[in-house]
């Protein structure tokens, strides 16, 4: 999917790393959204289903617990929030076109892949109160 000789290799080459970095840091752009969506589409079936989204939110919650020493977040609730943000036709799967049309790609993808974006989203009410 990225680059290299062995598609089953569990590592990425430098070009893949640079593309990932650019996509993560420009995830409001259509090209970045499409690139990241391909990475997030774990089953390579053209959409993100609830299970794929939940796997990512479980991972984020586990990392939060490990790095911060606590986590009171429910992965199912976070997955539901991401799906609600995108507002897909079918609530059990999201297409890349729906992500783009939602205008919430930056936030939704950030929740799934970016620790700091996740924390910023989860603490948004506290930040707006201050």
Structure commentary:
It is found in: Cytoplasm. By secondary structure, this protein is mainly alpha-helical. The protein has a single domain (14-129), classed as Orthogonal Bundle (Recoverin, domain 1), CATH 1.10.238.10. It is built from 8 helices and 2 strands, in the order ααβααβαααα. The protein has helices at 14-25, 30-40, 50-68, 75-86, 96-102, 105-113, 115-122, 124-129, and strands at 47-49, 93-95. It is globular. The termini are far apart.
Overview features:
globular; mainly alpha; two-stranded antiparallel ribbon; Recoverin, domain 1; single chain; PPP2R3C; EF-hand-dom_pair; 5% strand; 2 strands; cytoplasm; 130 residues; 8 helices
Strand content: under 5%
Portion in helices: 55-70%
Quaternary organisation: single chain
Low-confidence stretches: none
Compressed to H and E, one letter per element, the order equals HHEHHEHHHH
The CATH topology is given as Recoverin, domain 1
Structurally, the number of domains stands at 1
CATH architecture: Orthogonal Bundle
Euclidean distance between termini CA atoms: 43 Å
**CATH secondary-structure class:** Mainly Alpha
User: Could you tell me the radius of gyration in angstroms?
Assistant: 15 Å
Tally of DSSP β-strands: 2
Number of helices: 8
Give me the CATH superfamily: EF-hand
């Amino acid at each position: 999917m990225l680059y290299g000789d062995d598609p089953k290799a569990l590592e990425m080459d430098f070009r893949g790393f640079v593309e990932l970095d650019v996509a993560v840091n420009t995830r409001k752009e259509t090209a970045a959204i499409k690139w990241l969506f391909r990475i997030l589409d774990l089953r390579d079936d053209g959409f993100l289903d609830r299970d794929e989204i939940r796997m990512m939110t479980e991972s984020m919650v586990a990392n939060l617990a490990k790095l911060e020493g606590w986590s009171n977040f429910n992965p199912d609730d976070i997955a539901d929030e991401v799906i609600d943000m995108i507002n897909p036709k079918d609530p059990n799967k999201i297409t890349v076109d729906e992500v783009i049309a939602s205008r919430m790609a930056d936030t939704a993808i950030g929740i799934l892949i970016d620790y700091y974006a996740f924390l910023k989203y989860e603490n948004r009410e506290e930040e707006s109160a201050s």
